[in-house]
């Protein structure tokens, strides 16, 4: 799919390369009993924990983002500097290993959404998340790591994966385009950071507040869901300018502007072909894109710019002008060839309606045993890779264990547009010589809700 380009990018495993990291990592050793699962949900928007004082926002800090409304925050929200992405799967067995019924799983899902919605609403206001459903006697209600910190534009955004609707017995409520992404010819996907039934995106301008928010959500999941994967991303300070990915190119130039008709048409779901509960929601395509930075850094500036289709310094298309000048794909150079190569990233992803809201990640060198062999056989088969080229020899650059790149996030009304673009790029994109798609997932992002309700309440009108 649109990989890191001049149109917008962004995290690695929670275990930072630990061999203990797996596809279905248990998020905690605590086990919630069935009785707690049935009745321990927190009321959405309920009172704060009396023993935990409110955090005192710093004077002049930005106003808090809103949890309630028409659309979930964290999409049209001006992009924050840091992000934490995580996927969870619902538990299918009780603590004794007995398989749960579909009805029981659906009930647990509702309890989890109630807990997460209530915690998210309070956290985004700069309040403590409230006491955990299960805790040891005398344990503090909150970790305290965010005490004294303002919300820092914290947003928590939630999504539902394709498998979830079967798991909770709500197949008829599945959004029309919510299907697992097809395999693409250039994918090198790893199960350790692909898929998921539930999705959480936590963004903000303070990484400690983000960490605190994730701990609050994770602490409400035992017995109901377990962590599948997590990734963390960042952006440099950019103000109103387009952020840059780790290739040094501006990333997000072609994004529609929030509040415009073009944005609404590209992002928000509406119309009779989707379930009514999903109106005002959107789809998220998530891709972890690993960049071969040693190879990129030893390539010529011309190779880099022609791979993207834009100039690195200004972000202008190679056909001329400034960053926001429409590209002229028909303009030819002195050699008669298009100045924007037809197999450049820009040429292949043009006119795809989507919001790119991605983040960079840099996990540096990963000392996992499987990482050393994992990519050895990939790299030599990539265009431009050669064991005879000392500049691109993996043993010399360390790319085999050097995990950096982009956490690509595309919010869009129709994931089919992404699929069509990704197929074109898999077949011809010059960037394929520098990147690998190693993680992939798709989620339906529900609309926001009114106070007193949780994000999945519309799927259970009887409650």
UniProtKB/TrEMBL annotation:
InterPro entries membership: Dimeric_a/b-barrel (IPR011008), Dyp_perox_C (IPR048328), Dyp_perox_N (IPR048327), Dyp_peroxidase (IPR006314), TAT_signal (IPR006311)
UniProtKB keywords: Heme, Iron, Metal-binding, Oxidoreductase, Peroxidase, Signal
Domain Dyp-type peroxidase C-terminal: 242-449
GO CC terms of this entry: cytosol
PROSITE patterns linked to this entry: DYP_PEROXIDASE (PS51404), TAT (PS51318)
EC number: 1.11.1.-, 1.11.1.19
Needed co-factor(s): heme b
One term of GO molecular function: heme binding
Enzyme class label: oxidoreductase
Domain Dyp-type peroxidase N-terminal: 72-234
Domain of life: Bacteria
Spans through the membrane: none
Region (Disordered): 1-22, 47-74, 301-340, 372-398
The family this protein is said to belong to: Belongs to the DyP-type peroxidase family.
Descriptive protein name: Dye decolorizing peroxidase/deferrochelatase/peroxidase EfeB
Species of provenance: Nonomuraea dietziae
